[in-house]
Amino acid sequence: MLRMAGIRPLVAGALLVAGVFAGASTALAQVTYVRGNDANPETLDQHKTSTIAEANILRDLYEGLVIYSAKAEVIPGVAESWETSDDGLTWTFKLRDAKWSNGDPVTAEDFVFSYQRILNPETGAKYANMLYVIKNGEKVNKGELQPSELGVKAVDDKTLEITLENPTPYFLQLLTHQTSYPVHKASVEKFGSDFVKPENMVTNGPYKLVSFVPNDKVVLEKNPEFREADKVAIDRVEFVPFEERATCVRRFEAGEVLSCSDLPAEQLQSLKDRLGEQVHVVPYLGTYYYALNNKRDDLKDPRVRQALSMMVDREFIANEIWSGAMLPAYTFVPPGIGNYEGGGPKVEWADLDPLDKEDQAIALMKEAGFGPDNPLELEISYSAGENHKNTATAIADMWKPLGVNVTFNVRDGSAHYSHLRDSDDYEVARAGWIGDFSDPVNFLQLWESDNTGFNYSKYENPEYDKLMDQAAAESDLAKREEILRQAEALLVKDAAVISMLYYSSMSLVSPKLKGWEDNIQNAHATRWMSISE
Amino acid sequence: MFGYVLRRLLGAIPTLFLIITLSFFLMRVAPGGPFDRERALEAKVLENLNRVFHLDRPLWEQYLYYLGNLARGDLGPSFIYRDFSVQQLLGSGLPISIQLGATALLLALLIGSVLGTIAALRQNSWVDYGVTAVATFGITVPNFVVAPLLSLVFGVWLSLLPAGGWGNGGPANMLLPVITLALPQVAVIARLIRGSMIEALRSDHVRTARAYGLPARMVVIVHAMRAACLPVVSYLGPAAAALLTGSVVVETIFGLPGIGRYFVQGALNRDYTLVMGTVIIIAVFVVVFNLVVDLIYAALDPRVRYD
Amino acid sequence: MTDIATNTPEVAAGAPVKGRSLWATAMMRLRRNKAAMASLVILVVYILAGLFGPMISPHHYATVYPDYVRVPASLEAYPREDEIVPQAENVLARTRLDINSIEVDGNTLRVEASSEREIDPRVTRYLDRSDIFSNARITETSADGRSVVMEADVERLRFIFGTDGNGRDLLARILISIRISLMIGALATGVALIIGVAWGATAGFLGGRVDNVMMRVVDILYALPFTFFAILLVVFFGRNVVLMFIAVGAVEWLDMARIVRGQTISLRRREFVQAAEALGVSSGGILRRHIIPNTLGPVIIYMTLLIPKVILLESFLSFLGLGVQEPLTSLGVLISEGARNMRSAPYMLLYPSIALTLLLFALNFLGDGLRDALDPKDR
After folding, report:
1. Per the structure, how many domains does chain B have?
2. pLDDT tens sequence across A307-338
3. Any idea what the CATH number is for the domain that residue B117 is in?
4. Which of B141, B283, B301 sits opposite C223 (nearest CB)?
């Protein structure tokens, strides 16, 4: 191998010019979209998936019962219509005539097989819990029941019946998630986990897989069997992973990629100055927060927690530290989320002027027994990352007037998150939550006392748990929203967590790329787009 | 000679075994696991995953299991690239890393030894200082600065070369990464050559050669160079092993699918099998190159003999 | 070969006329080398800057100026004249007063404000809270307390190297980073030097099975996953800077050992070593007196290469969390921060890079000078 490698490089230096031409030599008729992606997909198996990078690719490969439109509204996909029983527990989907990329018809049985597969513990699905709402879903995943006992049934080839545990108003939202996409039963049975290889993969979406080379690219090509193939304008998509966001920016400016899926926050201002309209900063379903370990002696007192939260100048962090890449947050559930039209509860102190806020915070600390003569020693844990560091530094400075002395504990991501999950000796810890589906429950369930592994604040309030249970059983949307708002108000009152920033999605979109619609889900299926020269 | 090589290679087997064992257990002592990310997993889901990947077994059992697979040439499945086995990942990435590393190494050797020799022949002149200055610059500016700068200047501003990407290994795609990789090596090699060349030029056999009236250029090339190479050869062993097994920074910034990133990606994500795979590759390269270095040493310096 | 004695001062040391010691000669010769002496001066300046710079710098390295995040380097003081009034308006907007006029007269800001309610005298704190104004006071209050005249001093701050992403003075950050980086470089290189030279010389000199085993250890350590080693250290020992030196030094001695071993193997066959052996000098004695001094040339050059390597390696460790903890910083960290802001705030990359480059230039030229001065054959 060594010897062979030695020969090619010799040619390398000499042929500089040749390479420049090679770059431009794509086939003439074919429209190719080189698309920046967040990272490598860990897998292209929709049942093992968990990341946004995977969602972006799988959205082009498969079509679920329902899908996101260009504006991320839920529209019919493989299902052309559906109805719900009066108790909201049984959903019946009528499937349209759709085909797999090998010509097989897409049947209700494919969906039954798929949902049984993702909940089968043997699959090792990271997001199996997305479908726990289906009757017996959790029990199947725990190995207590057989996959065949899952509440999914093929009435006939074109009729699928799904039974739920509880009325779930966000069920359709869940079905847009990549975990709900069907797999082609025959090829999974034939190839096992290798069905994801380009030569084996059979898809039912607008594109099919051509190749996947980690750290290089994932190439998709138009699926001629797709039911709306004639409306798909782009022939070929190349998803290029960019762990280093600045690299994508450079390749975008060099005209090598047509869009970037994320941007380096510290460059946002200069990007806006340089690229203007091509920079898209759009509210997103995510919250950047500091968990306060409610079980620690120093942080047990809600007054201390509230004082700490009050002193955090969200506007400064959002605008200066994150250069406007984030929005200031006072409540945990991000605005614009579905089934929460009235928005979160009011945070009384949010609009106080800074001086009053500071005076009140100092007073609260004093009541709790802390002050300049008895300073509170706190440790902020965060995972390595430039802006996490800058944020922690800024917050330490903001807490100084309270007489709080801050030390930092930085770990790499894996160590940080396993520490949050397994230990209870941390005090203040950075974390973030990106919504999986557009419903406040997805955010608020984090703080249920039995949600260990997620509830980093170790918040425990029976009243809160009760409200969340009530909301789960409530089928009237308006009432449910009110209950959830009460629960979040409790979260604010107890200052269980410092909700600090709402995420924005940041993209670069070339003017050549038409049909990119900004949306809160940051979902942009290639099928809605076209390229103009 | 042949016996020596064989003995060294056989001797490498326990070395590799030790490396594998040490790495395996060191890795498992590190906090966190392959499924600990910003997005936490449901306890039940995590349990299923651990079972699928045999992480629920006692550590010694996992170790034996790994060794057993290894003996059969199976490096196991990757935890973060779940559609691939570690062999597949390394198999597609290694040729790319080698191609980049070897080109950079050749380039560095060529430029470095020329610069170093010139500097040594003109010791303490402005040429010498100039070479030292350029060389110093090469090591001073870290590659995470050089790489984006090159990409910015040649890719974005001048639009002469691709700003990044592998593009199936086109020469244009390779040029900037190779320069970035070669730059610090040029610097080191030039400085090492300069140093030992000055020494060699003063040594007895070069003096003798000069006294015999051999032309200066011949003396330099034949006699001094041979002696001056020694420290460079020493240095090149590990340097080549490191270069050929890829550079995280260069691969990340230019977006190249080599194996350099796998080690750091694997380490930060606790992809145990992927890290083990890269460790084994690096270990093999180190062992082989050390052997090569020792052999070259013997060939260059008649005073060193391996019997 | 008749000139063994003249070539090797060690052997000649027993001669009746006691010559100048190796080091005294070296110092003398070093003094004649202009580039090396200039480098020495620069290095001393750096050491002084690292030691005393943070104490005398006008800003503390940890002080955050929220009003001056990422301001470009400038010799002029901030705020700019035409920015004072808009900044004051900005600050006063939070008071919810009606601002009737804002004037700047030299270093004094004068504000007339009124409100429908009685004005709380605490409003001056808004001005004081800003980095731009200080000593805010109410000079006049109307009888009904509904309008006031405030005055405040305009604070002139100079950030000749600009400020970082948190609004901290870059000059002060560079000064503290020089201290940290020099410490790291010196300590880690020291550790690497001691272990590497001792290990390499021993292995090369003793040869045979011992050499084999010792180099095998080096091979094993080479291939060990350093990243995990680093993560482990953080977990077990906390984030201790001294530990980091040991960690870095403990990794970087390997190259040194290999170079010294290579040199030793070839020295071992040299006549003067064999002569010493024949005279019955102990192995330790030969190593100390003959082998190690003769390897100093390449070792010193390698040291001058190692220090930059260590300084840069440290930035990688910092990224993993084993590095220097905020608010302390190092040149490597500053440069990697700068590289991320290359296009939006080029000065954040430029000044730390200049600081590092200059330092390493000095180290290199000094290294070369030392090598030349220590060369036993060149007298």
Report:
1. 2
2. 999 999 999 999 989 989 999 999 999 999 98
3. 1.10.3720.10
4. B283
